[in-house]
Amino acid sequence: MKLLKLFCLLFAFAFVKTAKAQQDKFVNHGPQLTATMIQGSIFLKDAKGNLLLYTVVRGEPAHLLAFNVKTKALVLDVPLPKSDGAWDLAQSTDGTLYVPGAGGKLFSHKPGTKNITDLGNALPNETYLWNLTAGKNGEVFGATYPGCRLFRYHPKDGFTDLANGPLVAGENYVRSLAFDTKRNILYAGVGSHAHLVAINLTTKEKKEILPAKYQDREFVYSLEMVKGTDGQDRLLALLTAGQTTLVYNLATQKVEQEVVDMDMKAVGTDVKKSLLYYTSKGSLKRVDASKNFNTAITLATDIAAATAFHNDNAGNLYVLTVKGKLLHYHTSTKKIQITALKIPSQPIPINAIMYGPDKKVWTGGYLAGGHATFDPATNKNTKYAGLDQTEGMSFMGSKIYFGIYPKGRFYTYDVTQAWNTVKSNPKLIFEEKDQSRSFAVHALPKLQKVYFGTVPEYGKLGGVLAMYDEANHKHTSFGEVLEKQSVASLASKDGVLILGGSISGGLGVKPERKEAELMFWDMKTNQTITKLVPVAGAAAITCLINGPDGNIWGIADGHLFILDVAQQKVLSVQKLYDYPPFGSHIWRSAFLAIHPSGDIYGTDNGKLFKLYPSTKKVEFLAENAGLMVMDPTGKIYFKRGTELWSYTP
């Protein structure tokens, strides 16, 4: 009996030790990036009459913050569950604060209290809530994506679909809202093909009021109602691309003027004098909206874009900027006080990952941007601020190349020198017109060239292939080489560049192609060799690597294909795993890397897996795993939301 007990103890010890050894293969290195990026903001008073400033700081989850304007103290900091941000805040006529969560949920909060209430999803299948505006008698209206829908919420009635489906057929975004109390009309800005729709809530009539000459724009991105000294109301409508604000007279129903470079995250008003306050190109300005905006008076300079205004109409104007600074402008004395609010930073999701030339793991952040490194030798995390959201990275020599969103911008950074955006390290090397993102970045050190594949701007189809020549610091764009497709992945072999396409374009446009193409590109002549479809019906080719057998291996919609470059043909196609149906878009998904052992590891569809080259069998190793890179020793790094993880096979 004693021998049996001893055997059991030894077996249990061995089992625990083995289990711990297995568990120790996975290491959580924690959040890599943090930010103090604020979004929806509003000034309002609590039940005691205290003036409070509410704002939302992005993160996973986002947090709703409140500051006492008089003392500048942070008086509220609560998370918004399952939401990484909120673009807007609105207060209803009954005093309730509403928060449109980025996950499709609507939250409510009574100012001055410590709690928020999750009201649930506004409308089925709507994953993003953008703008909110208050209506009458305690109601609020909201704008959604991807169904281009409008909702009404009232505590007694719950949620109502105002337009009974998409506000504009074929569009994805209702991006902005404004409510005309006098006429009982709700105005809605749509994208990514611009529309401005007036909904008469009394008659239920819908009317397009954006003149045809502006309908080639992307979005009606922001809307604001203002009054003029002539007694007429005006609707300000920000159009993108570009930064043009239309001044639309609601009495004459005509566009009176176009204003360039006006920040439209928020505007302020002087009720007594019917004056408008706004920010533009770093200045705080005041104007009579019934007059030409060229007559605007500059009140202050070196001011970031405003995201909230409050005028007590007793000589005090308060402005919150996107940089988290609270400005107090005395309209009588013209004195200015500026306070940098202490906004608590929040972890933000990892959006890009690469093993760099400095032997560190580089990560880029979503949506606030920024970069960080993790040093495996010291376990040290270092943050680098100054660049926007990185979609793709690669390196050549000591230089890292970044594909940056928005506006198709590309930067290079020399890791042997200090990170200093003021001194152009990183340096902007070129921009691609009408392009938005670059996930595919492929460096060829022997040629001293870096190739980039892009996704076009909102509402457009057709990415481009671009090349940067480090030797002469020149950029060449080869244009839309894959018709109506984005360039989602790149690889090369024997002087041939291989491009993997995606049928998706920018957000807000439906694909016209039915399946993704692959292209062979001659890097000497800069000409197309041939095109083919490696996986019938696949929406995107999101991964291309030089395989263990000398061929190119790729993944498209869960299928592995092997490509003979010399013969320009597909040797084999094999389904590895089930893949979800095509949704609104697909730009990237699969990652593969060859381990020193010869095995292949990858991530796709939220899973980390091992691929056996000889049998093409897949062994799933972990859930909730995205992106992936492998260091020279074979250690694998991947992300789980905000956290960087490593796995040692």
The CATH superfamily of the domain at 420-647 bears the name: YVTN repeat-like/Quinoprotein amine dehydrogenase
CATH architectural designation of the domain at 420-647: 7 Propeller
Largest sheet: 4 strands, antiparallel
Low-pLDDT runs of 5+ residues are 1-23
Kindly report the CATH topology of the domain at 420-647: Methylamine Dehydrogenase, Chain H
Strand arrangement across the biggest beta sheet: 1-58-57-56
Characterize the structure shown.
Among the domains are: 349-419, Thrombin, subunit H (Beta Barrel); 420-647, 7 Propeller (Methylamine Dehydrogenase, Chain H), CATH 2.130.10.10. Strands 1-58-57-56 form a four-stranded antiparallel beta sheet, with no helix packed on it. The protein has a four-stranded antiparallel beta sheet with strand order 3-4-5-6, with no helix packed on it. It is mostly beta strands and 649 residues long. The longest helix has 22 residues, at 2-23. The radius of gyration is 27 Å and the shape is globular. A hairpin with a 3-residue loop joins strand 20 (233-240) and strand 21 (244-249). The chain has one helix and 58 strands.
